[in-house]
Design goal:
Length: about 110
């Protein structure tokens, strides 16, 4: 089971304890069985010179994808969904840039 599913199930069990549908000791038995796998942060951060070398070596068809990954912060999985937009330039005609005011929303109601 993936970490996200385990986390969701653990939160669901804790919700059941808070609402009284499940006893605390029963929940502890279940939570002991549902352990998340530890995740590690990236250990290598590329230097600016390494990035410049990769950009110079890239073929033109991959350059746009690499630059979007590099500067936007999206993941490769998300980039795959955008692939169709790049190869079908007519879809870009429907996009309009809209300026949005920055507002601070309060979390209190």
């Amino acid at each position: 089971m993936s970490n996200n599913k385990v986390k969701a199930l653990r939160k669901f069990i804790k919700f059941y304890v808070e609402t009284g549908y499940l006893l605390e000791n029963e929940a502890q038995v279940l939570l002991k069985q549902l352990k998340t796998k530890p995740t590690l942060p990236d250990t290598k951060v590329p230097k600016d010179e390494e990035i410049k070398q990769v950009i110079l070596k890239l073929k033109s068809k991959w350059l746009k994808s690499y630059l979007i990954l590099l500067f936007s912060g999206i993941r490769v999985v998300e980039l795959k969904y955008l692939k169709d937009l790049w190869f079908n330039a007519t879809k870009f005609e429907n996009f309009v840039r809209i300026k949005v005011e920055k507002r601070r929303f309060s979390r209190s109601y």
